[in-house]
Design goal:
The protein is α/β, with parallel strands linked by helices. The chain has one domain: Alpha-Beta Barrel (TIM Barrel), CATH 3.20.20.380. Helices cover 38% and strands 15% of the residues. It contains eleven helices and eight strands. It has helices spanning 12-20, 56-60, 83-90, 108-121, 135-150, 166-169, 174-184, 201-204, 207-220, 235-241, 263-273; strands spanning 48-51, 67-70, 97-104, 125-130, 157-163, 188-192, 223-226, 245-248. Strands 1-2-3-4-5-6-7-8 form an eight-stranded parallel barrel, surrounded by six helices. 46% of the residues are buried.
């Protein structure tokens, strides 16, 4: 993030406090709660919940989440959805909206254009997955995506995702990707799983390793997002790791990411991580 630049998550703390008091407000009326900025160098008091609907209807069932993440699971772990879906979801909520643009191989031009399209459609966070190996190629893609978003939308955030199962995929490691993300001016380093076969990020990376990843990112000025087939029983471990954001879909679909998001499970996750 640039000096003095507001972060899309700065309003969430006030909204969380309001909700915990039982305050109710017309969603069309902006909240007057005081925003509490995130200090990247100090562990957050609470993780933020990102939920990934695949449709406008599912997004309406996800609005309790802190971040609404638009993606299309049939097209991959970070499959891109349509720009009109991003635009419609952005019109439904004042909360930050994230959009995945795909699990990219080495195509810096394609990634940059997709990132720009997502930003134009209204995404506050633009998220790209690095589905290839090699630090030089990764640096080129990250730089292209950051430039595509930041030249016109400096207030928007770029998320660089690598995969917990990188060894079997033959892709860049999360630690290498995060270091490049910091060097290239991105905002968030994310870990997800590339192949959705029921194994989670915690099956591939130990708690101590993920804690080190989070700490290194914080020291570099990056936020950390952890995702990848996370379950309710993982939340205690995640709270010890203390990333800034946890990303879920299957958890709030009753354990089956191909099922439909259940609002009651979104509320359950919020209460457990709060």
């Amino acid at each position: 993030m640039g000096e003095g630049q507001a972060h899309p998550l700065t309003e969430i703390m006030g909204r969380r406090e309001s909700a915990s008091r039982g305050d109710h407000q017309d969603p069309a009326i902006p909240s007057e709660e005081t925003a509490i900025p995130i200090n990247h160098r100090v562990p957050p008091s609470s993780m933020f919940l990102l939920v990934s609907p695949h449709s406008i209807e599912e997004a309406s069932r996800s609005l309790a989440a802190d971040i609404i993440d638009v993606k299309r699971p049939p097209e991959g772990s970070l499959g891109a959805n349509f720009p009109w879906v991003i635009r419609a979801v952005k019109g439904m909520t004042e909360k930050p909206v994230s959009a995945a643009i795909g699990d990219f191989d080495y195509r810096p031009g394609g990634a940059a254009l997709a990132a720009y399209g997502a930003a134009c459609a209204g995404a506050d966070y633009v998220k790209v997955g690095l589905m290839f190996g090699g630090k030089d190629h990764a640096r080129e893609v990250i730089r292209a995506v950051v430039r595509a978003v930041k030249e016109e939308f400096p207030e928007k955030s770029v998320v660089i995702a690598a995969y917990a199962d990188h060894a079997r995929l033959g892709t860049i490691s999360p630690f290498e990707a995060a270091a490049l993300a910091a060097d290239c001016g991105a905002d968030v380093a994310m870990i997800d799983t590339g192949l959705k076969d029921g194994r989670s990020t915690l099956d591939y990376m130990a708690e101590e390793v993920l804690t080190e990843f989070t700490g290194r990112n914080r020291d570099s000025g990056l936020l950390t997002a952890l995702a990848g087939s996370l379950r309710f029983e993982d939340i205690a471990t995640l709270k010890r790791i203390n990333p800034d954001i946890i990303g879920v879909r299957g958890m709030v679909c009753g354990g089956d990411r191909s099922a439909t998001i259940e609002p009651a499970l979104v509320e359950k996750a919020l209460k457990m991580i709060g």
